[in-house]
Amino acid sequence: MIALSKEIQEAVQKSEDNLIRLIDPETNVEYVVLPAETFEQMRNEVYYEDNPLTEEEQSALLVEFGHRAGWDDPEMDVYNDLDPRR
Fold it and tell me: pTM value?
């Protein structure tokens, strides 16, 4: 493990969220320093999931998006009459 330099310690203390960005001047690669607890939470998928949505979850989201787009508005019923499959 590498100890933080005084400069990085000060940057962490001054940051509002304890996150700081570092850049390697030779490669221009950017790094983020964050508390180990935050890293572990992210690593254990507390903040995100790698798993794809199930078909039920996808269907539920499509229905929700349709409602938000106004597809359940009675004025949209006229489009049902235009459906050539009916």
Answer: 0.45
